[in-house]
Design brief:
Elements: E1 5-10, H1 14-24, E2 30-36, H2 39-49, E3 53-56, H3 65-74, E4 84-89, H4 95-103, E5 107-110, H5 115-126, E6 131-132, H6 134-145, H7 177-187, H8 192-199, H9 203-217, H10 222-240
Parallel strand pairs: 1-2, 1-3, 3-4, 4-5, 5-6
Length: about 240
């Protein structure tokens, strides 16, 4: 039997933490191992409890969820995998959300989501995949199309053996055609299993390809792949026209 996903909930409102605890404790596949009321305590609790997933509020007094996410993921003191961070907030898009995703958060949901979707999202990010609220995906396309390319600064991409040198202004040009196909399906929110079925690959092959994409582009997780693909789409469409 698969062990439950160990979850740390972080929110400055006690009522929200209580509601999350009550919702999640009804499920056999999730175990709430701790709670925190601010970012600083979230970092301490994450280091101490080693959860699989941290459900993180964004706006909190003192240390924000953005800074707490960065500290947990970049300063992880233990051997083995770091926890995944799932942002859960009332704000469907703002500068905090952008920063949280760049800090390494693996997912982003609104607090008006259903208990079933929240539990599903926890399972998705625990498995190393990514999840975004549909409204957020649409707005990310608009927001990131107006930003300069921030995700590849300082990256030395490896040459793409199949497609040759990247075109000007194309941050995905370092990828092979197969890697690009996988990246585009990641941006649509497809799981490894669905990507495998769509492209005629094995799940292990898709996972390996995603890891190569992360390495080539110098990214942290699947959400950042999705952001980069979405940000590149307007430029690609203009170039094709």
């Amino acid at each position: 039997m698969t062990p439950p996903v160990r979850v740390l909930t972080v929110d400055d409102q006690e009522l929200v933490r209580t509601a999350l605890r009550m919702m999640l404790r009804r499920r056999a596949d999730v175990e709430v191992v701790g709670e925190a009321a601010d970012g600083a305590r979230a970092v301490e609790a994450a280091y101490e409890l080693r959860p699989d997933v941290v459900v993180m509020d964004v706006r909190m007094p003192g240390m924000t969820g953005v800074e707490a996410t960065a500290r947990i993921l970049r300063g992880w003191p233990h051997p083995g995998p770091r926890p995944r961070v799932l942002v859960l907030t009332t704000f469907d898009l703002d500068e905090y959300v952008h920063a949280a995703l760049r800090a390494g958060a693996s997912g982003f949901l609104l607090k008006n989501t259903t208990p079933e979707l929240l539990a599903e999202a926890i399972g998705v990010v625990a498995a190393g995949e990514a999840t975004l609220a549909p409204t957020v995906t649409r707005r990310l396309i608009r927001a990131f199309s107006d930003l300069p390319p921030p995700l590849l600064s300082g990256v030395r991409p490896r040459p793409s053996p199949a497609d040759g040198p990247p075109g000007p202004g194309d941050p995905l040009g370092v990828l092979t055609r197969r890697e690009r196909d996988v990246a585009e399906l990641v941006a649509r929110g497809l799981s490894n299993a669905r990507i495998a079925g769509s492209l005629g690959l094995s799940e292990a092959g898709v996972k390996s390809t995603v890891n190569r994409i992360l390495t080539r582009l110098g990214l942290e997780n699947r959400v950042q792949i999705a952001i980069l693909v979405l940000a590149a789409e307007p430029a690609t469409e203009q170039g094709d026209g």
